[in-house]
Design a protein that fits this description.
The complex is a heterodimer. Chain A is α/β, with parallel strands linked by helices. In chain A, 24% of the residues lie in helices and 32% in strands. Chain A starts with a helix and ends with a strand. Chain B has one domain: Up-down Bundle (Ferritin), CATH 1.20.1260. Classes of the chains: A alpha/beta, B mainly alpha. At the A-B interface, loops of A face α3 and α6 of B.
């Protein structure tokens, strides 16, 4: 009987181990992706972007005037983006942002739960 | 009482807007002028330079951070448009040509500058922002209805089309600043 319980516990342990390994494998298997936000016609396009933590967003200024990308509370900001220049950032959390030169230009990054 | 004051403010604003449009309307009037590309280039440069001049006055007279921020944006963006227009006429060996519209824009701007310079520090911000709202509305209408349809050179037409969303963003920015002042 004792031997049966030990075997049962052993199997349970192994099953748990396999499941846990699978969970961690799934989490670490997310390959970071790159997304592009065009700054065009005085808008961030797309204005809302859903990404996963660790993904990279690249902003490209397709307008004829300079812009920037500034977090709504000014915790981070791009340098001045002249026409045709780009700036990229690895996204760690959801944020709203705007262009501090043209304050009615706004965008949002939403980090999806894994 | 508060409602009455708000209605009075809106009425005054509407009056100010109508006056500004009337000032501009002979330049971009009901009788649509016919313009050549060199004349369109001249109108584009003058219209942009006028707004830079208004912004320079704002930088001297205003203490309001939002007004100063708006004025700085006007200077940067309108200077960029002038530089692009100049690069284009240089590329095509065209000299911007004075015309009735650009002359009227210049003379109207002189009156506006006098008006802005005559305002006290307290009155200035509202006068400047109200004028920016009216001026951008008039210029957007002129670019869309006169300058873009009449421009013959494809690159000039494309530049003017790219300018429209910039002017619309300026208008939205000015209206946002205007609302905060009510």
């Amino acid at each position: 009987m004792k031997a049966f319980i030990s075997i049962k516990n052993g199997i349970l342990f192994l099953v748990s181990l396999v499941l846990l390994t699978g969970v961690f494998a799934c989490q670490s298997n997310h390959l970071p992706k790159k997304y592009i936000v065009e700054i065009k016609d005085m808008k961030f396009q797309p204005s809302k972007l859903i990404v996963q933590k660790g993904d990279t967003v690249i902003w490209i200024n397709k307008d004829i005037v300079a812009h920037n990308v500034t977090e709504k509370n000014n915790t981070w900001a791009s340098p001045l983006l002249l026409p045709e220049s780009t700036w990229e950032k690895v996204i760690e959390k959801s944020d709203s942002y705007y262009c501090s030169i043209h304050i009615n230009m706004v965008g949002a990054l939403l980090v999806a739960s894994q | 009482m508060k409602n009455f004051q708000n209605v009075k403010k809106v009425t005054l604003l509407a009056g100010a807007f109508l006056c500004s449009v009337t000032l501009l309307s002979p330049a971009f009037g009901q009788n649509t002028p016919t313009l050549s590309d060199p004349e369109i280039a001249s109108v584009a440069v003058v219209a942009n330079q006028n707004d830079i001049d208004f912004a320079e006055i704002a930088k001297q007279k205003s203490q309001n951070p939002e007004v100063l921020e708006f004025a700085n944006t006007m200077i940067k963006d309108h200077k960029t448009v002038i530089d692009l227009a100049v690069a284009l006429v240089t590329k095509f060996h065209v000299t911007p040509k004075d015309n009735a519209v650009s002359k009227k824009l210049l003379s109207d701007a002189e009156k506006t500058k006098k008006m802005l310079n005559s305002k006290s520090a307290k009155e200035f911000d509202k006068a400047y922002v109200d004028n920016e709202v009216a001026y951008h509305k008039a210029v957007i209408a002129a670019v869309k209805n006169v300058l873009v349809p009449q421009s013959q050179n494809a690159e000039l037409k494309a530049l003017l089309q790219k300018v429209v969303p910039i002017l619309e963003a300026h208008l939205a920015h000015a209206e946002m600043t205007q609302k905060k002042m009510l």
